[in-house]
Amino acid sequence: MEQTYTYDQLVQFLYHEMSAEEAVEMANYLDEDTETRAMFDSLLLAKTQLPKVRFQPSQASLNNILRYSTKTAFEALL
């Protein structure tokens, strides 16, 4: 049976979000199928053109998250 891959699986491979076994299978498939390889190469090019943005939350947001986490952890103990 011939394996075909979806666009979502190519994106998972691109971002290293699949198991090692799946990644090896995908790499082998990309070596064999030129059409799928072309799709992957276009995704890779698009990824390299995305801006490298880093977001830093405000201290107030971090404090709210920590407060909520402490509250829910305490409530779980009750």
Strand content: under 5%
Residue runs with pLDDT of under 50 for 5 or more positions: none
H/E element order:
HHHH
Mean pLDDT: 89
The gross shape turns out to be: elongated
Instruction: Work out the helix count.
Output: 4
* Terminal Cα span: 54 Å
Radius of gyration: 20 Å
Helix content: over 70%
What is the β-strand count? 0
Please identify the structural class as seen in this structure: mainly alpha
Sheet having the most strands: none
Question: How would you characterize the overall build of this protein?
Answer:
It is built from four helices and no strands. With 78 residues, it is mainly α. The protein has a domain at 1-51. The termini are far apart. The model has no long low-confidence stretch (mean pLDDT 89).
What's this model, at a glance?
This protein is an all-alpha fold. Helices cover 72% and strands 0% of the residues. The N and C termini lie far apart (54 Å).
Topology, please?
Blueprint (H helix, E strand, L loop, with lengths): L6 H8 L5 H13 L1 H16 L9 H19 L1
Helix pairs in contact: 1-3, 2-3
Key words describing this protein structure:
78 residues, 4 helices
